[in-house]
Amino acid sequence: MNEIVKTSAFIGAQPYSPDEFEAAIRAVGAERYHDKHPFHKMLHGGQLNKEQVRAWALNRYCYQEAVPRKDAAFMSRVHDRELRREWIHRIHDHDGLGEEGGGIERWLVLTDALGFSREYVTSRRGALPATKFAVEAYVRFVVEQPLVIAVASSLTELFAPAIHRERIAGMLANYDFVDDRVMAYFKRRLAQAPRDSEFALNYIKTNALTRAEQEGCIAAVRFKCDVLWAQLDALHYAYVTPGLVPPGAYRPGQATE
Ligand SMILES: O=C(O)c1cc(C(=O)O)c2c(n1)C(=O)C(=O)c1cc(C(=O)O)[nH]c1-2
């Protein structure tokens, strides 16, 4: 198993108090969450053209699709039935349950509105290489790391409601191809994400008790910020500047049927 922090550096070190620990987690978001990325500033500020928004939605589908897979991978390692009972709703939130189509269905409403066929989106064949590598790194991470560190990696969700609110308002105001129906995915997450992040935060405060475990959790949030940031770097490089689209990835204006 890869260690994400050098544990020996913290042997004998005083653990953080629960409040200090939470503050250290939140400080990672304040420094490196992807709300600070120039591509998001452009997306929310109406500075992208429709093709660039399409490329974002197409690539971001891969993240949506990876999240329930990483939750399933996580659950496969959990022996505590109570924790599995709590965690399973994350899969339902994305994949849906019964009549409820779930977050992936809502994401496909967005890509429908942007004119992509569902077959093209769900095949992921137009996604950027870096998108695919980044999202799979997240799935691998929860397979390889200790459970408490895997839980901590979901904690970027602490910072997600603010960016979702900014995105809903910004995209509705700035793009005529966006309406309430298309933004339904993010509206739903405003209620779902706080529940998930509150549970995960309590879980790590209760279960990461040594300084080394706590530092591992903080590093997990840094890692996850990297997963998110790398996806936006790749979008910026391919579709904003210098505009170099890798072979096989979606090209603006390309017929995708
Ligand atoms: O739009 C965003 O900026 C954003 C970020 C994140 C995140 O911070 O990982 C998630 C989501 N959205 C999201 O919609 C979502 O369902 C989600 C699940 C998870 C996770 O790590 O389990 N993160 C996120």
From TrEMBL:
EC number, UniProt record: 1.3.3.11
Give the catalytic activity. 6-(2-amino-2-carboxyethyl)-7,8-dioxo-1,2,3,4,7,8-hexahydroquinoline-2,4-dicarboxylate + 3 O2 = pyrroloquinoline quinone + 2 H2O2 + 2 H2O + H(+)
An example of a GO molecular function for this protein is: pyrroloquinoline-quinone synthase activity
Query: Is Oxidoreductase found in the keyword set?
Result: yes
Give the residue spans that cross the bilayer: none
Entry-linked Pfam families: TENA_THI-4 (PF03070)
Q: From the UniProt record, give the pathway where this protein acts.
A: Cofactor biosynthesis; pyrroloquinoline quinone biosynthesis
GO-annotated biological processes: pyrroloquinoline quinone biosynthetic process
Q: What keywords tag this UniProt record?
A: Oxidoreductase, PQQ biosynthesis
- This protein's superkingdom? Bacteria
- Which positions fall inside the Thiaminase-2/PQQC domain? 24-233
Q: Which SUPFAM superfamilies match?
A: Heme oxygenase-like
Known role: Ring cyclization and eight-electron oxidation of 3a-(2-amino-2-carboxyethyl)-4,5-dioxo-4,5,6,7,8,9-hexahydroquinoline-7,9-dicarboxylic-acid to PQQ.
Family per record: Belongs to the PqqC family.
Q: Write the protein's name.
A: Pyrroloquinoline-quinone synthase
| Species of provenance | Methylovirgula ligni
Give the gene name: pqqC
